[in-house]
Structures are given as C-alpha cells and as structure tokens.
Amino acid sequence: MQSFNAFNIAKWLVHQHANKIPFKALPKDLALSNARQAVAVQNEFVRIKAQQCGDIVGWKIALATPAMQKMVGLDAPTAGRLHRKQVLHAPADVTTKGYGRLLIEFEIAIQIGSNLLPSGTRHTGQSVASAVSAVTSAFEVADDRQADYTQLGGQGMQLLADNTWNEGAVLGEWVPFSQVWRNMSATPKADDALGELKGEAFINGASVGLGYAHDLMGHPLNAIAWLANEANDRGTYLKEGDIAMLGSLVTSKFPNKGDDLRFELEGFKPIHLHVK
Question: What's the domain count of the chain?
Fold first, then answer.
C-alpha cells in the first residue's frame, strides 16, 4: 500500500480545481484514513494556493449543522482557511466562469481582537467573548465543482482536505463588538445581541431564506470557541486580526449569471453581490 503523502494529495486537489473538474472521490491510492491526514493535506493545499491567492488571513466553519455533517459521514463541523486576495468588501462582483459551480452562503463574520492561545482548559463561548473585536455580515464564496450531494456520504475527510471548498468571502462594514447591542431593541449586552441577530437573503429582490445567529451551534460565541479549540488542536491558534466565518444562516444558493444577491443582517447595512 502506498504511504501517505500530503503534498501529492494536495497537488491532485489543486489540479482538480484549476481545471474545474467535477468533484469526485480521491483515487484509492490517495485515500485519506483520518482527520489528522486530512488536515495535513489541507495545510499543503492552502500553502500551494497561497502562491496565487495570498497569505492566510482567517478561518471558516463548514458543516455547522448535524444534518450536513451526517450527509458526509462526520459527527462534527470542519474548518478551512481564508486567503487575503480572496477576501473582498461589499459591494462586489463575482463571475461564474471562475468556478466549477459557484456556491454562495450568507454568514456572520467576526474579527479576532486578541490571540486565543491554548491553555489548560478548552475555550468556551463565555471565555472567547472578550477576544471578539468586531462583527459584520458576509457572503462566503465557494465552489462545489458540480458535486452530486447524494454521493457525498463518507467524503467528509476529503472536504476537509479540500479546504471545505472555500474560494473567499465578501465582507460588509465592521461594527465594534461592543456596539452590536446598540442596533438591537431591548437587548442588554453585546453577546446577547449577537445570538439574536436575524439574517435574510435575497436574490433579484426575492427572499430566499431567513435564519438566526443562534442557529450557529446555539450561539455564535460557541462557534468561535469551537473554532479556537480546533485551531489549537491543529497546533496553531486564532490570531489577533484574523477573520472567522461562522457558517451560513441560510441554505447555500447557486446563483446564475446576472443575479443580484443581497444579505440583510439585522442592525447592519445590507451587503450586495453581483454575479457576472
């Protein structure tokens, strides 16, 4: 049996993306056995990708819900990385021809204000609250390369290795975390306000979904804590200035050329994305 080689697997994945080859399972001689191997491949994948897409500037959470995890044979979320040149500010344009199949998600993004280093105890929602410096609404840009979702069972490790399909993010205006509550009614604290945020997605003016921040692992701060622990388990940490995408409030959408997308997160200015 061929020995595990993270670089070779990452090169295979890079080739698939570069040529917009429809998503398919890794060849048997490149198959992954566990999450440790998948993370090692992701590290190589993003290292190669950074040559064109810029330094790593943050993280994203994928498969945040039990239903999505079950679909790919996992029992926990996964995490991917963001690249500097792929993080844009709204309003923005994106083109369908740059992807195998463009996929958009509607998210809350946060900015880390202080390092979340490993310690003797695991991070919790309460313990990470002081490390959040700012909040905004965001689109995640992804590419599922025409994946057949009925055939994704057991492919969770490959999705993790493949940087969870991330191709960037479009961010709104940052609002200091301490001021989030000011835009909410009858909410006494910023962390309480964050959990009650409501988001609605629109395509060409028509509503296509509604969700709440507490759908993200019970509270966005819980999602940040999970991500901080995941980073620590990988031998790194969420750093001051990092961006973290916490998962979609609305089901993923596959926009067409000419579509205009809008995401309205309560208390924040709407953000816009045009598909060319």
Answer: 1
